[in-house]
């Protein structure tokens, strides 16, 4: 989904259409019907074939548009949103709605006749693309923006549109970092499959430097590098969105951080940016692009997949930086098995790791494995406390104890210190924040590639003289699935090559957005401004602009509060759990505290229910599921508070207390998961079957609407290294509510 360009072919009578838009910018222009008849006057064959299919889509769009009108409410003097878009009466709103319905119908008629190109039928193209990418939610968001643009067409003069277009010229994002451009950098690109040693070599370069930065995709990886450097006596800071550990008494220290927190104003010798293929991820890719373009390091070491090579080389050429590519082969062979475990956990072997995608699922599998095999099972995932995570990994890696098995989240694919003989996928589908979808080729290969891994890039065998070396292990790594229905997808992935990345994602910097806001009517919603700038953005073939759907929702949530553009843009990046109403209310309360500069102490914010700390399951009538959800919501709330405390410390001043509360909450969650989660094979199979059915239904719906061969623009985004949509980019408690059925009856 990129932009809304033009509703239908128009005959402008008094002004030119806005650039890439199609809605007149100074006064209304009459619409004319798209041609759907051939020269003989009969309906064309293409129109006849597509008419029924696109009528279904038209009906869907109109239904969602009517729902949006209901959300707008009736026109009134106090309805700031409608007034900001130039609507001055109830009659005016009805007239705009009727004209927009006509624009939708005209676009569908053009599509029926085979005209579905972005350049000639942009409204249809953008609505279809939004539906493919984000299902009904994505479609609704695009319809809303389309209608807002439609209403605003008479208020956008040609001069204003011209200035907006000038500010949205993003062809040269490297110019956003002038201090970095003054450096002559060397970019070392380390590429290869999992377990090839690429990150090992990059981290050795960082260790041998006098100063440097590590930027990784996960908090747990930032912590591992931080712990490694600290253990070797090298002063190191850890910086993530919700936690910062700065060494005391030293001015020169290394920094280990999540990529979003990579410092761009600190001159260092070496910077390591891990998982560079994430540069092509629509949600988080901007952070990798920003780090690549802006980090002030003499040497920049990028680690990732082969498919990133051509794009990175093109970007380096545009930057004027030297690019050296280092390619690596796996240190041990990898094979996919011909058979699955067929759901039988008794077939597990020592050194096996079962991969699942939610914490409830992981704890349920752990208990089931231990009951079925009589052996112990370690558990590792991102949100475990670092000390616990390291302890569990050590128990699994030690061959001389009873911890024969491991259950782990997909974070295992990002470089945890785990020596795995065989990777077993619990399922080949996961929730991506919008829908359940099949795992991408890249995700399967990256997770499965951990099998047969003697040492991660973070570790090395210690030789007699204490030097670190990579040691090759000849035994092959094996990959299979728990369920037979998932095995063909996993086998297929290892025969495929992921498509090369074509473009890196960028986000316009705050200073451009602040200037852009000056050329929109007062009280224009921030979400509209973001989509408007995305629509007008002019980029080179190497870059794409995308605005996170979550960011748009957060923008609307805080719209009513009198905040500066800078404050609004800051909150857009907060770790907000949007599917929890109480957390959404907390965001609004936080925005109000920021606007009034008061009420931001942790104990003053009623939306953070600290009384849960003293609650037991008995206080929830023995309902362990309600209890778990309540403490999980408190965890999300405190995480958000900590994030705010680093950005606005004068308002959200209870940081130390918040850290203490977070530790208590994490302990309660882990204890409950460890003692009250079970694995019921029948329910588990039914849940997986339901998810497969949901995926199939969505794909059939898209086929029903668009037919065979419709363009799957969303697939490029799905080929990222992973979807990390949780706060801190970690695994969710559950992927859907049916997983709560795995909780046992409460033990009172």
In short:
It is built from 23 helices and 20 strands.
What does this structure look like?
This protein is α/β, with parallel strands linked by helices. The chain has four domains: 156 residues, no CATH class; 155 residues, P-loop containing nucleotide triphosphate hydrolases (Rossmann fold, 3-Layer(aba) Sandwich), CATH 3.40.50.300; 160 residues, 3-Layer(aba) Sandwich (Rossmann fold), CATH 3.40.50.300; 197 residues, no CATH class. The chain has 23 helices and 20 strands. Strands 4-3-5-2-6-7-1-8 form an eight-stranded mixed β-sheet, with helices on both faces. The radius of gyration is 27 Å and the shape is globular.
Topology:
Layout: H1 45-72, H2 80-84, H3 90-112, H4 122-152, H5 158-167, H6 178-181, E1 186-191, H7 198-207, E2 212-216, H8 219-231, E3 236-239, E4 244-245, E5 254-258, E6 268-273, H9 285-294, E7 297-304, H10 309-319, E8 322-327, E9 334-336, E10 352-355, H11 359-373, E11 376-380, H12 386-397, E12 403-408, E13 422-425, E14 429-431, E15 436-438, H13 441-448, E16 461-462, E17 468-469, E18 477-481, H14 487-493, E19 504-506, H15 510-517, H16 526-536, E20 543-545, H17 549-557, H18 565-572, H19 581-596, H20 624-647, H21 655-676, H22 681-706, H23 714-718
Parallel strand pairs: 1-7, 1-8, 2-5, 2-6, 3-5, 6-7, 9-18, 10-12, 10-13, 11-12, 13-18, 19-20
Antiparallel strand pairs: 3-4, 14-15, 16-17
Helix pairs in contact: 1-3, 1-4, 3-4, 16-17, 17-18, 19-20, 20-21
GO molecular function: ATP binding; hydrolase activity; RNA helicase activity
Protein name: RNA helicase
Biased composition (Basic and acidic residues): 726-748
